[in-house]
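[User]
Um, tokens okay?
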Amino acid sequence: MTECKKVECKEGEILKEGKCEPCPAGQYQLQDQCLPCAAGTFSDKPGSTTCSKCSVGHYSSEGAVKCEECGVGHYQDKSGQAYCETCFPGYFGPAPAASSCVKCQAGFFNLLRDNPRANNVPPVL
């Protein structure tokens, strides 16, 4: 007589070809499948059951293993976002992973959207 056994996998694992395998990094386990982390979230290790939100100043696309820093001249003031905002003219983003842009001081300007610094106002002739 032959018996059938039910295979129980641990959290973060799914049954694949008769064996339990962890969901890869960038994915999480939901019931009996591995799904990619949504944009704005990440999973940095195999066997995850949830994805974590990106922190302010960072972003990610779907299936991310880690969040990326917003580049100079860009910012993100909310967690869990899929993109970074661009600093407006008159403001600048002085460093990567910024959560806000800095207003140019009086006598300085910034016309370029991706500029990392404010420039002196040219003299008026």
In short: Residues 120-125 have pLDDT under 50 and may be disordered.
